[in-house]
Amino acid sequence: MKRKDSHSDDIPYDTRTKQLLQDAVPLLLRLLRLDDLDAYEWVDKPNEKPLALHKRADYILQNLRTKRLLHVEFQTAPDPDMLQRCFAYAAPYFMKYKVLPRQFVLHLGSGPADYVREYADEHNKYSIEIVDLKTIPAEWLFADNSPDALVFT
């Protein structure tokens, strides 16, 4: 029997969406005003055997100068387990690269970006960054000369 949840391997929508948005990831990171973007390269392109549990991390990039990792997830609706999923996605990269990725969830949905962003107890703290793409000023997209910016405008 096929599972009907949003994480089922039987649903090709997520794969197609990741492939369509892959070329726009550098633009989106630039719009987030991250430094040193020219030093990043793909560690795992979407769906090419990522080092993530359940093989579902969207995009992983590494800064070749600092060795820092960026992990980008696209979501169209808030997932109540997103924080836990990102933690599970980060663990294999920490094991291999000895650094936790900086993790962004880019919210594409029309509704609010209401995600749990942080876990903390007396000994541990873990967080992810949520970016509601509706809050990125359109002027930033119009000012960018890349074809990917036109798609998002």
Explain briefly what this protein structure is:
The protein has 153 residues and is of the alpha/beta class. 29% of the residues lie in helices and 22% in strands.
Tell me what the structure shows:
The longest helix is centred in the middle third of the chain and has 16 residues, at 82-97. Helix 3 (82-97) links the parallel strand 3 and strand 4 (102-107). 29% of the residues lie in helices and 22% in strands. With 153 residues, it is an alpha/beta fold. It has helices at 13-21, 25-31, 82-97, 138-143, 147-152, and strands at 40-44, 59-63, 69-75, 102-107, 118-120, 125-127, 129-132. The strands form two sheets. The protein has a five-stranded mixed β-sheet, covered by helices on one side. It has a two-stranded antiparallel ribbon with strand order 5-6.
